[in-house]
Specification:
337 residues, alpha+beta, 10 helices, 12 strands, 31% helix
Length: 337
């Protein structure tokens, strides 16, 4: 009996979905992706299918260099619930990677969510705190949550194995820093960079969708929800509707992520303490001012990405950490303030 339970533990059965290869080739085969600056990449487009459904539930592109593990570059969910990953735009990622490669010193260390870290490392050549598939949190629909062991096993195998204990522990510390109040969180980020032995500049890159992933990991600490809205009419009309919807549901603040020309995803925080965390202050919520954030210095913004320099020590009091000329405002994830 014990042997049988042990076998079930290490063999949780099949995942409720599968990755299906739809197309593969070099960069020249995918001209619309805008990856001409990385001609050495091998690319694959995958779709996710589940039994009994003819159409794909989601799709995305993965890239690898040589014999390295595949790295997910972009993702599009086609259901009302998120599957495997949050939505992302490849054009925003390539712009971010190009900016880092151009402006960050070669010895710079980049701190970011583990999946963003792998993307930045692949495309910019800069060192990142995380390089492996950490696999946290698992993003699966409610109906699949009873099969999380099978999902985790399938995801780890597909993306080249799970990160080691040290890297997973480091990622938990990274999450701790994002959930701390800004001064303390910035100090914890400096400690993480220092523990890695970083002797040069260190930066932290955040994407708006990291909010949702952090909420899945630490629901008791970070109370967040989201709702998608169609872009119909002018932006001012949408903002008015969002504010009313926020008030009707007793949320304290919100920010937006552009999914495409017709759809936005709004992330809402339910509690004031969530709005006072470092990550909430780094992003354009209606109650935050990223340009005025003191412990970190905003140096880049494009679409859903916000990049801050981690000072060697706390920034002096008085004055903003960055001016609007230092941070690009194009493609902003834009709060409705």
């Amino acid at each position: 009996m014990l042997a049988w339970f042990g076998w079930l533990w290490f063999n949780p059965g099949p995942a409720p979905y599968r990755y299906q290869l739809a197309e593969e080739g070099d960069v020249s085969k995918f001209p619309k992706l805008g990856l001409q600056a990385w001609p050495d990449l091998a690319l694959s487009r995958y779709e996710i299918y589940t039994e009994g459904v003819d159409k794909p539930l989601a799709s995305g592109h993965a890239a690898r260099r040589g014999s390295g593990a595949p790295v997910l570059l972009d993702w599009e969910n086609r259901t009302s619930e998120l599957i495997v990953s949050t939505d992302s735009k490849l054009s925003e990622l390539t712009a971010l990677a190009s900016a880092i490669a151009k402006h960050a010193p070669r010895e710079a260390l980049i701190l970011a969510w583990w999946d963003t870290s792998r993307q930045i490392n692949l495309l910019s050549g800069r060192d990142t705190l995380f390089k492996s598939h950490v696999g946290e949190p698992l993003i699966v629909p409610a109906m699949w949550r009873g099969r999380t062991d099978a999902v985790r096993k399938y995801e780890d195998e597909f993306w080249g194995g799970r990160a080691n204990d040290q890297e997973r522990a480091g990622f938990q510390r990274f999450a701790d820093a994002l959930l701390a109040e800004p001064e303390k969180g910035a100090a914890q980020l400096r400690e993480l960079a220092g523990a890695r032995g970083a002797s040069g500049d260190a930066y932290v890159a955040i994407h708006v969708s990291d909010l949702y992933k952090l909420g899945l990991m630490r629901p008791e600490q970070f109370d967040i929800t989201y709702k998608q809205f169609h872009m119909e009419g002018n932006m001012h009309g949408l903002i008015g509707y969002l504010k009313q919807w926020m008030q009707d549901n007793n949320f304290v603040t919100y920010t937006l992520q552009s999914l495409n020309d017709k759809m936005v995803r709004a992330y809402f925080l339910r509690e004031p303490k969530s709005a006072q965390t470092l990550i909430a202050q780094m992003l354009p919520f209606t109650e935050s001012q990223p340009l005025d954030l003191q412990p970190l210095q905003l140096i880049y913004q494009q679409g859903g990405y916000w990049v801050y320099k981690i000072p060697a020590r706390e920034a002096p009091q008085g004055g903003s950490a960055a001016t609007s000329s230092q941070a690009s405002s194009s493609g902003s994830a834009a709060s409705g303030g």
